[in-house]
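Human: For the file, kindly provide a plain-text protein record giving the amino acid sequence and the backbone structure tokens, at your earliest convenience.
Assistant:
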Amino acid sequence: MSRFSNLGHRLYQGEVSFDFVGRRKIWYSISGVIVLVAAIGLAMGLHLGIEFKGGSVYTVSKPGLTVSQAQTTADEVVSSHPLVQSTDNGKIRIQVSTDETKSSDQVRSELSQKLAVPLDTVEAQVIGPSWGKQISDKALTGLIVFMILVTVYMAIAFEWRMALAALVALIHDLLITIGVYALVGFEVTPGTVIGFLTILGYSLYDTVVVFDTVKENAKGITKQNKLTYSEAANAGLNQTLVRSLNTTVVALLPVAALLFIGGGILGAGTLNDISLALFIGLAAGAYSSICVATPLLAQLKEEQPEMKALRKRVLQHRAAAAAKAESESEAGADAPAEGEEDGQPAGMVGQRGRSAGTNRAKGRPSTKR
């Protein structure tokens, strides 16, 4: 852990740097492939819950009744491919779509007989398709309003280029999360919509933190000739990299417990709808803020005339500095080494290298007896 914290300090100080902005084509390609796969899954269709499309829900309370047993019985009673899940309190939840021809009372009676439970232990709830359509419309309206408010806020607090980059990152996260939902086949419920809005807020938060650091690094950047905007943006991204990763890991741990332990091992299927949305969305949000939003922002900023002029000055300054260093290196190689004179190689000990006192001392009689 100390090594990881030391890496974070070195990233913040600029001693170590990962070139995320310079490799934006790689990140764009990865995102393109993921979004394409998600779009294919989305084209296959989402498995909407009865809250959106209408239908009937039957809740059965029987000790020892498993999901597989209830699924076999439900398939015998109804013909519209019912969805069977276990609830948090140990009951079995059977969802039947509006395509079912049998009445709610008839289905309830047959379930009671085949499962050998009293009729009053089989609870029935009927949801009409019109109510589900209202829920769908309100969820879509809320999502659109959220996107508009985010764009306006980012444009006012930062600038329109940052607002556009943040909006692209949000749409990127939303498409990936919905596409994974379609591929996995999980049911979309109101809890899923809550999860979508939550991960969009988290993704925006992470992006704003990075953009704020980039904004600080880019203050007065056109008045110098050492860094381009892309390099300043990449430095800000590296300064917040460890913080973003730590925040994401800490957020993913409890969500992973809900998804894999609660929904997978313990069989609490009602936890899957919101936990999957949060898990995929949090991971996609961390990726987009690092590899999509900031590189896209740098690309948009580099199209400005003043940033193009800055890049030109920076490259000229570096070329001049490199030429100066090369000339100084060549001059140092051609200069005589220390101690070398009159063609005598340095380090050679000869007559001239001796002092006059040493020469005069030659031939004197020794005072020793």
The chain has 13 helices and six strands. The first helix runs from residue 2 to 13.
